[in-house]
Each structure stands twice: as structure tokens, then as C-alpha cells.
Amino acid sequence: MLATCIYQRVIVGHYSKTCLVVAIWLLLEVLSDFISTSFSFSVNAVEAVRYYFIFSVASLSMMVTTHLNGSYPRSIRIMFTAITYIGVSMAFYRWGVQSRWEVWGESFYSSYGLLIDSLFVWSIAGLDALMIILGVYSAVSIGFNNNADGGLRG
User: Fold this and answer.
1) Taking CA 90 as the corner, what is the angle to CA 56 and CA 102, rounded to the nearest 5 degrees?
2) What is the domain count for the chain?
3) Is pLDDT at 152 greater than 50 in this prediction?
């Protein structure tokens, strides 16, 4: 995504802001994973909760940025909002299960944990894929017209 934005800037002369926001978002997503887990496959509860909160803060910052600047598509703003809500709810879910492990957390996690974890991963992957599609669409559309906002003209 970042390479597409750089290519647009060099060849076309201007770039799509939506493409740049999606590229920065993907960079923040990888950075939040590195900060909290150092790309480890085995993650303890504290690292998982920290990851979800850092992930949510990154989403929230991107959501505020796109809401304050009204030139971004509404779909991108909705996706950042959805990712923020999903990340915060996942962090509280993980915190609740781990803090009450002895009482009810272990039985709940053994019954529903894999389903909830899978649902979170697939929802984030789906929203990321939609954002990448919107970013590429925005990059392609700006290559075919001179609209600086990256949208198609009617």
C-alpha cells in the first residue's frame, strides 16, 4: 500500500489520501503487534490484553483523524470505528476471562474461547481486507482522473 502511494506521488504527481491512511493503518497494526508480543506465537494473558488495547488506541487515533478531516470516505471511518469497538471488547473479554480464571474463566474459555478468538481474528482480517480493497480502489481511481480527494467523478 505504501509503495502504491509512493508510486502515485512520483508518477501521477499526487496520491490518494485514503490509500495513505490504509497504508499507515497497516503499519500501525504491525507495530502494535511488535510492541506487545514481539511477533511471538505463544502469548500470555497480559500481552494479549496489552495488544488489544494498543490495537484499539491505534484504531481510535485513525478514526479520529478520518472523522476530523471530512474528505475520507464514510466506509473507512465506519471500519475504523468497528475495529475500535471490536478491539476494546476483545481486550475486556480477555481481561475478564483471565482475571476470573479460577472462578468461571477456565470453563468459559474451554467452552467458547476458541470460537470467540476465531471470530475476532476473522472479523479483523475481513475489515483489513475491505480497507485494503478501498485503498487500492482509491489509488486506482486517482490514477484515472485528477480529483485530489481520490474519488471517482460522476
Assistant:
1) 135
2) 1
3) no
Average pLDDT, rounded, for the chain: 76
At residue 15, the 3 state secondary structure works out as coil
Q: How far apart are CA 133 and CA 146, in angstroms?
A: 20
| Domain that residue 39 falls in | 2-144
What confidence tens digit (pLDDT) does each residue in 12-22 have? 666 667 777 77
Q: What dihedral angle (degrees, nearest 10) is formed by the CA atoms of 138, 142, 148, 150?
A: -20
| Tens digits of residue pLDDT in 41-88 | 777 777 778 888 888 888 888 888 888 877 777 877 888 888 888 888
The Cα 119–Cα 123 span in angstroms is 6
Domain membership flag for residue 66 = yes
Residues 1/15, Cβ–Cβ less than 8 Å: no
* Residue 149: inside a domain: no
- Taking only the tens place, the pLDDT of each residue in 53-65 is 888 888 888 888 8
Q: Examine residue 152 and state whether it is found in any structural domain, yes or no.
A: no
Q: Cell numbers of 39, please? A: 511477533
Q: Which residue has the higher pLDDT, 8 or 117?
A: 117
Residue 53 lies in a domain: yes
> Grid coordinates standing for 41?
506465537
> Which residue carries 475500535 as its cell?
84
